[in-house]
Amino acid sequence: MGEMEDGYKREESVALLVIVVLATLSLASLFVAFSYYCYISNKVSKHLKSLKGRNEEKEKAAPLRSGSGRGSGSGDGGGDVPILAIDSGVQVFSYKQLHSATGSFGKGNVVGHGSFGAVYRGVLPDGRKVAVKLMDRPGKQGEEEFNTEVELLTRLHSPHLLTLVGHCSDSGHRLLVYEFMANGGLQEHLYPTKGYACSCGGISKLQWDTRMQIALDASKGLEYLHEHVSPPVIHRDFKSSNILLDDNFHAKVSDFGLAKFGSDKAGGHVSTRILGTQGYVAPEYALSGHLTTKSDVYSYGVVLLELLTGRVPVDMNRPSGEGILVAWALPYLNVREKVIEIMDPALEGQYSMKDAVQVAAIAAMCVQPEADYRPLMADVVQSLAPLVKNRSSKKISSSSTSQSCKPATKPEYD
């Protein structure tokens, strides 16, 4: 009997030993498997980060990469001056090449004066007409604005944004080269006697259909920045002088030196110093420095009011209560019978009352004091599109605008 008990005990001990050994082996296997998993995950993570880092470095370096290009027309000595680099269609020019293209930056080729320097008409060796902005703002701010514009316009591509042809950072010079917009800025067509030489007696010849096409083009430019770019881009200085017109009076948004990336969060904002142009700055941004895409929507609404009324955003020479365009116009915009009272007299007989009331309603929504009540630019585009007549079979107008009222100045590109 005792021997049987001893046998059972030995079997139990062996079984227990086997169980312990198997359990130990299982734990060891799990530990090895987990360690291997961590090792592989770490290697994969490092590899992905490395690839991402290299791609980001390539993207950042892209506008500034140097390389050979076709020889092009020359500078002062008459020899060939190569284009230093080409990336995504944006060229890096030498100062000598742009000096030659603009006729040595001669006064006769000045076509405008932006806030960052003079703008010159130029012709590249391949015959393309360009506008060359010679930035003369010294210091860190000027450098930041130059870099911002190059960075954004190199990456953003829309038919409703002004095209950056190239740039130059050579021997301390900072120059931006744009496509040439033959009909200059919207501002000079709306206000032909306010600092712009014109033979049309101070009355704008910009017709209703053309104004609506300009409004739609500009809204598509902002829609692209706000809703087709991530994070969204906030222009921060949207105004009539920064809407440029080609030879067919189609509009493009320009001047991205003050632009900022917005928040990806719904309803989010970025805090920044308050910059912009008086009369166009949204109230919440002016008071708090909180910047959102709705700040641009407000500025767009002011431009839409300019197109409707033919008045500048701020004119303290007007009678009491009429000096600030938004404050004066807002009470009229949602009252059908009163809309006619604010319309530009130069537009008489060119529009239907239904269309005028609808555009006034869009403007009223855009300039609401509370940012949350303003529409998205996609909604503005959708509302304006039906009002723009199909002109695919003919050029946008203007026998009267481009001939009778040809401005002496050209694009501001500021």
List the helices and strands and how they pair.
Elements: H1 2-61, E1 71-72, E2 81-82, E3 85-87, E4 90-92, H2 95-101, E5 110-114, E6 117-123, E7 129-135, H3 139-155, E8 164-170, E9 173-179, H4 186-190, H5 208-227, E10 233-234, E11 243-245, E12 251-253, E13 260-261, E14 270-271, H6 283-288, E15 290-291, H7 293-309, H8 325-333, H9 336-339, H10 353-366, H11 377-384, H12 399-404
Parallel strand pairs: 4-8
Antiparallel strand pairs: 1-2, 3-4, 5-6, 6-7, 7-9, 8-9, 10-13, 11-12, 14-15
Helix pairs in contact: 5-7, 5-11, 7-10
Low-confidence stretches: 54-87, 195-201, 391-412
For the biggest β-sheet, the strand order reads: 3-4-8-9-7-6-5
The major pleated sheet works out as: 7 strands, mixed
The total count of helices amounts to 12
> How much is the average pLDDT?
79
What is the CATH class of the largest domain?
Mainly Alpha
Terminal residue distance: 108 Å
**CATH homologous superfamily designation of the largest domain:** Transferase(Phosphotransferase) domain 1
Helicity, as a percent range: 40-55%
Radius of gyration: 31 Å
